[in-house]
Every structure is written in structure tokens, then in C-alpha cells.
Amino acid sequence: MIKVEQLHKSFGTNEVLKDISLEIKKGDVVAIIGPSGSGKSTLLRCINLLETPTQGNIFIDDQNVTTINNRNMIKIREKVGMVFQHFHLFPHKTVLENLTYAPVKVKNKTKQEAVQIADELLKRVGLSEKAEAYPSRLSGGQKQRVAIARALAMEPDYLLFDEPTSALDPEMVKEVLDVMMDLAKQGMTMAVVTHEMGFARMVADKVIFMDKGQILEVAPPEEFFSHPKTDRAKDFLEKVL
Amino acid sequence: MNIFSGFSLIAHSIPYIVNGVWTTLEIALVSAVTGMVLGILLSLCKIGRIKILALLADFYTSIFRGTPLILQLTIVYFATPQLIGYDISAFLAAVITFGFNSGAYMSEIIRSGINAVDKGQFEAAGALGVPYGAMMKDIILPQAVKKILPAMMNEFITLTKESAIVSTIGVLDLMRRAQVVAAENSLYFPPLIVSFVVYYFLIMILTILGRLFERRMSRSD
Asked: How confident is the model at residue B2, as a pLDDT?
């Protein structure tokens, strides 16, 4: 379980997250939505320790990660995978090498094991034939599917998605969402920052609505989308739906 | 005496001059490797979080960039025996000076290369739990090197050419050998033009090798 308690994050004098508390249970799919600049991405990045919180606690499986040392940080990052808006595949490595590098380096898997896992994952995201290609040869949608496979290759318990479809051409959004839906179905615990309301509605167990660094609503998707409680959420939904 | 008879007069010395190219190359290569290793270490200090190391690396760079190379070489060669009583050979003095000097320039080139790598690459590696050392070695530096290959090639070419000043401490490189032959025969144009031509072709060959290497490195684009 991921548990965030009274989290604050400031960049200089700019307070980006104000008193955020939330829980993500094993097997849950949580959609985090809200206008740009509301702190959604920063929240994810704090959970994955890419940003250091100014104040507050984050627990991952009962371990407080805000007071963690370097070695345990690596252990946590093995557990928590991350998929970025701009993919960030390693451009000088082939698709297969992208998938096998970290498992071999960090989890001490043998090359053979890593390749076997990578092959299965590539099959799962429908890109087996691209194993030897370099990322520059892939479309955006293919890159993001590889990025998801790369995160999965570490066999994480949690997967964080930071606007995974926002940088994609519209016709490629579906192929990525399909992969994510498939993951959700198989019980992966996921936190997804997204502007895809359809996806949030269909897949999420819980919707978190954020604005100006605060969580304004937490509700099951049906309830949130049909009866938003706050004016700010109503306003937002009117604009995006 | 016309130019051609001048050349025929030193004809038997031409191989001697041309063979100086090996000394020149040796100094350039050893210095380049030293400079590369030093440059990587210094650049990591410069971009790292430890302030004191960053300051020291900057200071190191400013020393080598802020003084003439020929003066550095002269100090290392002539002052070392008096300072620490070690009778340093001209070759060693040359590669130490050039290596350390090149390290200063290389560190700036590599630093700019690392800074040019997308921040997302650091984050992606970090998010996968890749430790700092492995991330630098396997993910960041290979991409940085690709971006700075032309600048590094340029540095190596400068190093090769500038190595001619080792002639001032008596190393028998291309330049020095031409001077020796010139002095022996009291004839300047032919021997100097021989080394001139050899330098030129040497640099052209290095340039072409550099381009081929660059092309090979860009196969993932």
C-alpha cells in the first residue's frame, strides 16, 4: 500500500503541493486528474522519490520513504515503476536492451532470464518484432508501449503513469490505453495522472481531483463524473467532457 | 641553389624527419587518453553535488586554461628536477603536461555534453533504480560522448598539432627533427616543409577517422 500523509512540496516560494493525503491500496487503479499546474505530476514524482518533499510522509509498504537512505531508495524504486509522458527510452540501446538493462544491472538477473522476461513483455505489448530496433525507429505509441514494458521488466508492485498519452498523436492513444487496461485487469496497482477521462471513468477504482496543489475530491469514478461535489470540479469537467 | 637541389641535399634525412610522426602520435595519444580519463573525472566533480570537489575541479581548469602551455611544459620539465629531485624525461614531462592540460579542456567539453543529455534520461534511469555510477557509465556518458564527438575530435587534433612545442624541451618529434636537419645543413625550407606536409596529412587522416567514427556512433539515430 502507498500512503501519503500531509505532503507539502515547494519549489522556492512556490508551494506546489499543499497538505496532500491519500492511500493507494494493492490492486487499486487510481486516476489523478485536474487542470495543468495543479501538482499532479509533482505528486507522482514525490512518490517515486524523483522529488524530495518539503514536509510530510510517504509510506510504501509501511516503509517511510521520505527519510530513506540511498541503498533503500534503490529498493523502493525497484518496487515502484514509472512511465513518463515523454517515454525517456534510452536512445543508444535497442528495444530489447532497454528492457534488459535494469533487471540485469539492478536485480542481478542473468542476461538469459532478462531476455526471456523481455520477450514475454514485448509480446504482451505487441512489439515482438521491434526487439532489435532502436527507439528512434518507433512511433510515439510504440515508444510508450516499450516504456511500459521496460517498467514492467523490473517486476514492480506499483506502476506510476505521468500523463502517458499526452505526448501522443491522437490515433496512437488507444494502443497505449489498451495496454494499460490490460494491466489493470491483471491486478496491477496503478496511479495514473491523465487527461483521458474515458479511461479514468472506465478503469479507475478511484478518482482523485486536484487543483492548485490540493486534493479537492476523492470518489469512485461514477460518482465523480456524474455528481462532482465542488464547483471547481464541475467547472473542470464541463471544459474537458 | 634552387628548391629542388635543396631537397636532394637533405633526401637521406627525409625518412628521419618523417619518422618523427611516431613520436608526435605517441605523445598525442598518451596525452589524449590521460586527458580523457582526467576530463571525465573532473566533469563528474563539476556536475556533482559535492561543492568542494566542484570548486577544486573549476580551479584546476582555470589554472591550465589561464597559463601558456609552453610555460607549463617548461616548468614541468626544468623545475621538477630542482623541486623534487626527480630527473624527469622529456617524454614524460610532455605527456604529463599535455595530458593534464587536455584534461582541463576535456572536462569542459564533457560537462557540456552531460548537460546536453535530456534530464529525462537521468530520471528514467533513477526510476528504474539504476545506481549513480552505472547510470553515468552506461546511460549518460555514452549519449554525452555522441553529442561532443566533433568537439573531442577537435581537441585531439589541437593536441596533435600543439605537441610541436615539445621540440622546445628536446623531444625528437616531427618538428624537432626538421629543426635538427635544418641546422645540420643550414637549409631551412626543405626540411621544414617536409614536416609541414607530414603534419597536414596526419591531421587529414585523423579528421577522416573521426568522421567515420562519428558515423558509426550515429547508427541508433
From this structure: 67
Share the mean pLDDT of chain B: 92
Nearest CA in chain A to B221: A136
Q: A51 touching B, CB under 8 A?
A: no
Distance (Å) from the C-alpha of residue B46 to the closest C-alpha of chain A? 21
Nearest to B36 by CA among B100, B90, B87: B100
A11: amino acid identity, one letter: F
Helix (H, G, I), strand (E, B) or coil at A60: strand
- CA dist B82 and B178 (Å) reads 30
- Please determine, looking at this structure, whether the domain spanning A2-238 carries the CATH number 3.40.50.300: yes
Indicate the residue of B120, B146, B219 with minimum beta-carbon distance to A88.
Answer: B120
User: Looking at residues B113-118, what average pLDDT do you find?
Assistant: 95
The domain limits of chain A are 2-238
Given a cut of 60, whether residue B1 has pLDDT beyond it is no
* Residue A84 pLDDT: 96
Average pLDDT on B202-209 reads: 94
> Which residues are CB-contacts of A217 (< 8 A; sequence separation ≥ 6)?
A207, A208, A209, A224, A228, A229, A230, A233
From the list A91, A150, A151, the residue facing B143 with the nearest CB is A91
Residues in CB range of A107: below 8 A, 6 or more apart: A78, A154, A155
Size of interface A-B (CB pairs under 8 A): 66
A240 touches chain B (CB under 8 A): no
ipTM for the predicted complex: 0.90
Contact A161, A33 (CB under 8 A): no
Q: How high does pLDDT run on average in chain A?
A: 93
Q: What's the CA gap between A231 and A238, in Å, rounded?
A: 10
State the Cα–Cα distance between residues A120 and A34, nearest whole angstrom.
35
pTM of the model: 0.84
Strand A158-162: give its sheet, edge to edge: A80-83, A158-162, A189-193, A29-33, A206-211, A214-219
Query: B47-85: b or e for each residue (b if 16 or more CB lie within 10 Å)?
Result: eeeeeeebeebeebbeebeeeebeebbbebbeebeeeee
